[in-house]
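Tutorial, part two.
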Amino acid sequence: MKSEFKVIGFDADDTLWVNEPYYRETEDKFCDLLSAFQSPEKISRELFKTEMQNLELYGFGAKAFMLSMIETALNISDHKVAPEIIQEIILLGKAQLNKPIVLLEGVQPVLEELYRLNYTLIVATKGDLLDQERKLRNSKLEAYFHHIEIMSDKKESDYLKLLKHLEIQPEEFLMIGNSIKSDIFPVLNIGGYAIHIPYHITWLHEEVISSEINHENFKEVDNILLLPELLSNGKDH
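Running the prediction step on this input gives:
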């Protein structure tokens, strides 16, 4: 992989900081609240089905998740769920929005190093605008980034729009993230470069097997701490 890129993009959730474990924790509590109606497995399946049906309307993020939990509770219970349970679900959603920002190992020193080496760094993430802005602010990482892009989705057309805004070509762009589906495939498909950093938990909607990728513009590393060395090695080729 080459080392000279005009822009390096970073995904945020589960690339820079912890995210998906919080959703799993909230979902477990949600299943407990509805245990009188269905098994946890059935409730989880129905919740995911509802989320997928609502994606086009609500997009991604904690608020969309809360609305899908409420809808699932009504469907699972045949509209018999008590108002008090709905209130508990709303509180779960608010708690999700107020989860602490926990940076993943190595994130801050790597960003510091790349910034010192004069790489132009951006955040390219999807989700709810207010929620992602709050996470970035609380992360204390904003100073490292030249640009913050909070996208409604991460399809090829979304990346092309981003690159047009940045006034760069796909081959001048490197994307780094934990989701093969959102951070890797679309960027490779438009002619960009991508590095996958796996995270131990992945949302079902984002699950893809990385070992199936055979592309000269693609690399995978186990930890973000290996990123500077990978870019440095690219200078020898």
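The longest helix spans residues 40-58. In part three we will examine how such features are distributed along the chain.
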